[in-house]
Amino acid sequence: MLSKKIEEALNAQINAELWSAYLYLSMAAYCHSNGKPGMGKWYEVQFQEEQDHAKIFFNYVIQRGGTVTLKPIDAVPTEWKSLLDVFESTLAHEQKVTALINELFALTAAEKDYATQSALKWFIDEQVEEEETAQNIIDNLKMIQDNGYGLYMLDKELGARTYTQAAPLASAQ
Ligand code: FEO
């Protein structure tokens, strides 16, 4: 049984993950419109992954006998100054998500909800990866600057990314 506080926090996290999905779909559109189809594809995969994150929390609330309450999803940005700005905004956003997961983890400790704490461990590891990936792309973009061949190669590399269902969903099937 979930406490009201934990249930509310998990519902807020479902909303935050769906907002992230919406943000990355917007970034995908920006990349496609700016002649970077590989980066657009990379963000489309990111969009799918965030939907998975929302679904993991959704499944968990139901599994624990809680109630899922879907709230409106706020508007997302649609314009960025540059490709570097897009990826720097991605890193800043992921750092915010990490802080949200950490707050949730702290709440489970305060509420002595160790089952939810255990379920959050996958997200803690995932956030390390999310931040590292965004940082690596930023480093590459800074190194390449506006070198056309470098940008072409990076776009090609990022476009090779494929979607894999998140492990907690894959194992639930
Ligand atoms: Fe759901 Fe990118 O964190």
Write down the oligomeric state.
single chain
Query: For this structure, what is the CATH class?
Result: Mainly Alpha
Overall mean confidence score, pLDDT = 97
Q: Which ranges are low-confidence, i.e. pLDDT below 50, for 5 or more consecutive residues?
A: none
Number of strands: 0
Write out the distinct hetero groups bound to the structure.
Answer: MU-OXO-diiron
CATH superfamily: Ferritin, core subunit, four-helix bundle
Rg, please?
17 Å
What CATH architecture label applies? Up-down Bundle
Binding site for Fe cation: 17, 50, 53, 94, 127
Function: Iron-storage protein. May alleviate iron toxicity in the presence of oxygen.
Catalytic activity: 4 Fe(2+) + O2 + 6 H2O = 4 iron(III) oxide-hydroxide + 12 H(+)
Keywords: Cytoplasm, Iron, Iron storage, Metal-binding, Oxidoreductase
Would you mind describing this structure in some detail?
It is a single chain. With 173 residues, the chain is mainly alpha-helical. Helix content is 76%, strand content 0%. The relative contact order is 0.16. Bound molecules: MU-OXO-diiron (FEO). Residues 17, 20, 50, 53, 94, 97, 130 line the site of MU-OXO-diiron.
Describe the structure in brief.
It is an enzyme of class 1 (oxidoreductase). 76% of the residues lie in helices and 0% in strands.
What order do the helices and strands come in, and which of them pair?
Blueprint: H1 4-33, H2 37-63, H3 83-110, H4 114-144, H5 148-159, H6 167-170
Helix pairs in contact: 1-2, 1-3, 2-5, 3-4
The site of MU-OXO-diiron has 7 residues, from α1, α2 and α3.
